[in-house]
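Appendix B, example 12.
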Amino acid sequence: MITEGYMTRIFLNNMYRLLVAGALALAIVACSGDADPTNTPTSPPPTNTPVAASEPLSVVASIYPMQYFAERIGGDRVEVATIVRPGVEAHSFELTASDLITIAEADVIAMNGLSLLPWLERALESLGDDISGIVVEAAYPEAALPFVESGHGHEDEHGHMEEDEHGHEDEHDHDEDEHGHDEDEHGHEDEHDHDEDEHGHEDEHDHDEDEHGHEDEHEHEDEHGHEDEDEHGHEDEHGHGHDEDDHGHGEFDPHFWLDPLLAITQAERIAEALIEADPEGADVYRANLATLSSELRALHAEFEAGLSSCVHREFVTSHAAYGYLAAAYGLEQVPIAGLSPEAEPSPQRLAAIADRIKDLGITAVLLEPVLSGENERTLADETGAGIYQIHAIESVTQAELDEHKDYLGLMRDNLKSLRAAMECS
């Protein structure tokens, strides 16, 4: 049966193709003009051809963390454009025709993956052969936590809410060995010299293909975007009022970059793509990656020390973006919304969280700056809790960069907020 969702996807794909064709045609006309043919620029070299140092690689990043990693690794050899505009909530961003041209012409497209931005995956599929560059997905299912929709059911079972939200308590005993990504899994043992302790999460996240049985399903948005209501059955039950094709995530939590050790693996994947596109710059990219990786390991050590002695192990936050951070440091996130912050929690969910805040004696709620904060303020008013800021770092304004410096500064400010909210000593 041809469903409404299927017809919608066909329509969106056709619209993307029309936008791309029209935008590229306009670009060709604009570039042709009456220019002197002798001054017409030559076509850029193929992406597999080494790029001269005087000609930076054109890199498109999906979100700020991918931009930061690409800029730190690429240095002067790259020019990075970020698709999601500063200060815009990434899940609700809409591509423009000029964005599609930028994507199609890039040498490297660095995206997070795991259906963080389904609209970008649809755009890439629609562009098809018009994409001339290398596409790298920095997050990957082998180390991923499963997607869990929060706040739907079990609101009355306050003692079990965390199990339904995370389903990993038994998997995450959080000892020293839990942070070890299998080096064969990432393929960087000789090149990057990261031992198992540096890359933790081997026990936590090493979900093999048989365990999930969906590796092939997660290559493209149309294959893992909750196509069928009966298959995933959440539309009527949860009543979010959002089209699943627009806001639905895949089967895994995509927020890798909020765990510093997983951020290293994302940086490694981006470095590999840069080396493939520009082999002459390989030594530069590897050296910059080594420096960045060292800084990320130092950041991990700061989080370990800063969160080791706290009154609470739970923190209440705007949406379920912090599963990797929580798993890495033996914490438990209590999200108001699910992976999409636009999904409104039910009154029962808010009441359950308020009861839990009171029962546990939690003294603060963590609010993300790009959100309205209405639910957080409601909980704070009802429970007497304070409000601190935490940043998912998907999209960052220039003012925030001026204040916090960069990804590392934002993460350190997140650590300060977590320590205050959980009353750490």
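Residues 1-12, 23-52, 151-248 have pLDDT under 50 and may be disordered. Strands lie at 57-61, 78-82, 108-111, 134-137, 314-319, 332-337, 364-367, 386-389.
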